[in-house]
Design brief:
Elements (H helix, E strand, L loop, with lengths): L8 E4 L12 H15 L8 H12 L2 H9 L3 H8 L12 H7 L5 E5 L4 H11 L7 E3 L12 H10 L7 E5 L2 H9 L3 E5 L10 E3 L10 E2 L2 E2 L2
Parallel strand pairs: 1-2, 1-4, 2-3, 4-5, 5-6
Antiparallel strand pairs: 7-8
Length: 219
């Protein structure tokens, strides 16, 4: 259990963290990434999956790899791959908003996506007013999660201190970096404990199970 009185800032990843992976959003975005690589760069469909995986593993995001190898325009890429009908995937979640509002800590989005995509997700869930700031891929350029430099920049932009922050993310590698910097860490979308993070929860709605509110279980 992480105790709320020890923390002043909650850093939330966006995709597959504030909503469940079963929504299909990331599958739709992955398809748009492949389409971008085919249409904009003229790459063969057969080569795209392997190249995309290699770029992600080497550069942290497909975008950073495409910038390095193909000099793509970052905003053109981000606009293209996030051009999905968000209302088809997400619905308002009043219970999520109610739960998050019980925590007085500063709430900040920290994402490898861009601000416009974050706005669309938060608006669809109807939780946008709960977040004080969005730290996006442009803000941490030229770095990205899970690079330590990206986390250091995010903490600075959040006007906080690593030891006073909790990172909530679905990515084990992102959380490993956060923990190495002294942050509290909660993996969302998993029930598998690891040395890479402090706690894990199946869904963001389960946050009260591992994060106390005012010194008590938030449930």
């Amino acid at each position: 259990m992480l105790h709320s009185e020890n923390y002043t800032t909650l850093l939330f990843d966006l995709d597959d963290t504030l909503y469940e992976s079963s929504t299909g959003i990331w599958q739709a975005i992955r398809e748009r990434i492949g389409l971008y690589m085919h249409i904009r760069l003229g790459l063969d469909w057969e080569t795209i999956p392997t190249l995309r995986a290699n770029l992600f593993n080497t550069y942290g995001t497909t975008l950073r790899g495409l910038i390095a190898l193909y000099d793509v325009d970052p905003q053109d890429y981000l606009d293209f791959v996030h051009d999905i009908p968000m209302q088809d995937y997400l619905k308002p979640d009043p219970q999520l908003g109610k739960m998050l509002s019980t925590y007085p800590q500063k709430k900040v989005i920290f994402t490898n996506a861009d601000r416009n995509h974050a706005y669309r997700v938060l608006k669809a869930l109807e939780i946008l007013p709960l977040f004080e700031k969005i730290i996006d891929i442009h803000d941490i350029d030229p770095h990205c999660k899970p690079m330590p430099e990206a986390f250091s920049k995010a903490v600075s932009l959040a006007e906080s201190d690593p030891a006073r922050c909790i990172m909530l993310d679905d990515s084990q590698s992102n959380l490993a970096t956060a923990r190495s910097l002294g942050m509290g860490t909660i993996r969302v979308g998993s029930t598998q404990l690891s040395w890479d993070y402090d706690e894990c929860i199946p869904r963001i709605q389960d946050l009260p199970d591992v994060f106390s509110s005012n010194g008590h279980n938030g449930g």
